[in-house]
Amino acid sequence: MEEKTDVVIVGAGIAGLALAVELQKRDVSTLLLDRRKGPESTPRGITFQPNGLEALEKIGILDQVRQMGSAERILEVRDWDRQLLLEVDYSVLDHPHNYILTVNAVQVEQLLGYNAENMGARTLWSTGFDDILWNTGLAQGVRVRVKDEPTDIKASVIVGADGPQSRVRAGIGATTKTRKYHDSFLVGLVGPVSELKDRARQYQAPGKMLGIMPAGPDASYIFYCVGKRQFDDLKRQGVEQFRGEVTEAAPELKGAFGAVEAWTKIAYFTPSFIRVDPWVSNGVALLGDSAHTIHPHAGQGVNLSLQDALVLADVISDAIKAGDTSAAKLAPYQASRKMFADVIGQHAHYTATYALSNNWLVKRLNKRALRKMQKNKKLMKRALEITAGIFSKKPGLIEQARIGGILP
Ligand SMILES: Cc1cc2nc3c(=O)[nH]c(=O)nc-3n(C[C@H](O)[C@H](O)[C@H](O)COP(=O)(O)OP(=O)(O)OC[C@H]3O[C@@H](n4cnc5c(N)ncnc54)[C@H](O)[C@@H]3O)c2cc1C
Q1: Helical (H) or strand (E) element with 168
Q2: Whose CB among 153, 265, 309, 357 lies 3.0–4.6 Å from 3's, allowing a Cys bridge?
Q3: How far is ligand 1, taken at its centre, from the CA of residue 305, in Å?
Q4: Are both 90 and 72 inside the same structural domain?
């Protein structure tokens, strides 16, 4: 196999697929490669925020994605006794897409994959990335492995969209700061919850969290904090035990659980927060979770990645046209996007750790912040602009402390 293309994208997840669509639109030939045997088929939920919805509109698939999922303007936050702590109201935002949309991520990947291939992008499955090929300090292609056979692919730019454990990132020697969390989660799609009626809901208490997001007419996406428990131990206890715990916390889920008989429909994960620098090197750029992995409590990983893909497509297309793919030419991508990942990543870190903390002071501050936001719509709007990814400059320390409930 002898391949040559303008851009090789390592990783055919949502980030890589979105970039392939945008590059093909700009007449940049694109080859995706992924070590998986084929597209993902196990259903999983994903929530789009206003910034991601705007990006989907620019990519040209928002209307189709809307038909797949459920749009909500209200996210209720309740305590473990089901008392309402806060109604997060997205309609306070001055934005054309002031709502959240939860869908089955597999359907979005299928749609992006279909569009990418229709526009001329090619995908090689069962193809593992091994190394970047360098020539006098400039990347000129990749060495991959197809069925244990090493093969070289020539390209002007290599994009690492290969997830949180990115090997492309290691290949450019980027530094990573990783924070691992102690609490793990179970996530999955269950049946519809009629009681919710156009609202999403989250229960929280120290060490506990349960989210229920409507995800289309026949499904709800749930995420449930299992603390330090391991997946094997949970499996030994059985799906019945899980169903019992979840429906005790949220009785409205009872009718929704018929669809879950086996663990194959439930995923287990332990979040991490990975900050990366730099995102670019000579002939190489990082995209999606490879550039920033954040706590999913913010529901922002994919949203940021779609926005990143739009900017990166412009930067790569300009670089290829200019015949200059150096780090300096690719640097405007990092300069325009890293601040958003840093602010949202930090915000996700604080909101997730505050919500789950057992520390008495943090518990008090967290409750106080939620109560303050319920009363003060201006404060809610500012905090929500960060969650929704629609701010334009970095919030100052005092503003962050007010949002976090530390200052009055
Ligand atoms: C439980 C959970 C819930 C989440 N909920 C939300 C949400 O509601 N909203 C939101 O915006 N974000 C959410 N996120 C975050 C979101 O899922 C990620 O940010 C997003 O999937 C990242 O996409 P990606 O394309 O960068 O990476 P991935 O989807 O991880 O894709 C990387 C691809 O690279 C391939 N790959 C890896 N290594 C190699 C190699 N060496 N060779 C070839 N291929 C390779 C992999 O097979 C994979 O297909 C959630 C995350 C989790 C864990």
Answers
A1: helix 167-171
A2: 153
A3: 10
A4: yes
**Exposure pattern of 94-125 as b/e (b: 16+ CB <10 Å)?**
ebebbbbbbbbbbbbbbbbbebbbeeebebbe
One domain for residues 206 and 69: yes
pLDDT value of position 362 = 86
Atom of ligand 1 nearest to the CA of 15: 25
Residue 3: per-residue pLDDT: 80
Looking at the structure, do residues 139 and 34 belong to the same domain, yes or no?
yes
Q: Tell the residue nearest (CA) to atom 2 of ligand 1.
A: 296
Cα(180)–Cα(10) distance, rounded to whole angstroms?
25
Total tally of structural domains belonging to the chain: 3
* Angle ∠(32,36,42) on CA atoms, nearest 5: 115
CB crowding 270-294: b at 16 or more within 10 Å, else e = ebebbbbebbbbbbbbbbbbbbbbb
- Return d(Cα 20, Cα 113) in angstroms, integer: 9
In ligand 1, the atom with minimum distance to the C-alpha of 36 is: 47
**How many whole angstroms separate alpha carbon 44 and alpha carbon 41?**
9
Distance (Å) from CA 276 to ligand 1 centroid: 16
Do residues 341 and 304 lie in contact, with contact meaning Cβ atoms separated by under 8 Å?
yes
CA distance linking residue 299 with residue 313, whole number of Å: 23
- Site residues for ligand 1, CB cut-off 6 Å: 10-16, 33-36, 46-47, 128-129, 161-163, 167, 187, 269, 288-289, 296, 299-303, 305
Looking at the fold, whether 186 and 264 belong to one and the same domain comes out as yes
Which residues of the chain carry a pLDDT beneath 50? Answer: none
pTM (whole model) above 0.85: yes
* Token pair 């019992």: residue: 244
In this structure, is residue 28 part of a structural domain? yes
Residue 110 lies in a domain: no
How much distance in Å is there from the Cα of 203 to the middle of ligand 1?
25
Supply the pLDDT for residue 1.
Answer: 52
393 and 293 in a single domain? The answer is: no
Tell me which residue range forms the domain holding 260.
62-104+182-269
Within 10 angstroms of residue 238's Cβ, the number of other Cβ atoms is 11
Q: How far apart are CA 261 and CA 218, in angstroms?
A: 16
Residue 353 domain-assigned (yes or no): no
> Is residue 340 a part of any domain in this protein?
no
Domain with residue 151: its CATH number is: 3.50.50.60
163 C-alpha to ligand 1 centroid (Å): 5
CA of 285 to the centre of ligand 1 (A): 17
